[in-house]
Amino acid sequence: MRKRGKLAYLREILHNYPEILAKPQTDWSRNESRRVHIVQQTLDYIERMPDGRSRHKLIDLVYFRNRYTLSGAALQIPIGERTAQRWNAQLMELMAEQMDLP
């Protein structure tokens, strides 16, 4: 899998997470259940980090609410734009590890 394709896939999972949660759990497909499990594991891991609340807020603003870019969310938290990019890259690496993606 190309790196650009992998990142787009991981972003799609994060963007779709709130939509999946809105459905009754009995209506989830096996794939949706796996995606929810992976995102929840990732969020649990992030919450345990020293700056976990800020990281979670970044994820919420950029992916779950789909309201800001990384730059815009960085201003809302407030953190530096480069820090937001680094946190996002670490999020993608963590999710890729959880999904056993190369």
Distance between the termini: 7 Å
Structural class: mainly alpha
Helix amount: over 70%
Q: How many β-strands, per DSSP?
A: 0
- Which stretches are low in confidence, meaning pLDDT under 50 for 5 or more residues running? none
Structure description:
By secondary structure, the chain is mainly α. Helix content is 75%, strand content 0%. It has 5 helices and no strands. The mean pLDDT is 93.
Summarize it:
With 102 residues, the protein is mostly helical.
Topology:
Elements: H1 3-22, H2 30-47, H3 52-64, H4 70-76, H5 81-98
Helix pairs in contact: 1-2, 2-3, 2-5, 4-5
Give descriptors for this structure.
102 residues; mainly alpha; 5 helices; 75% helix; 0% strand
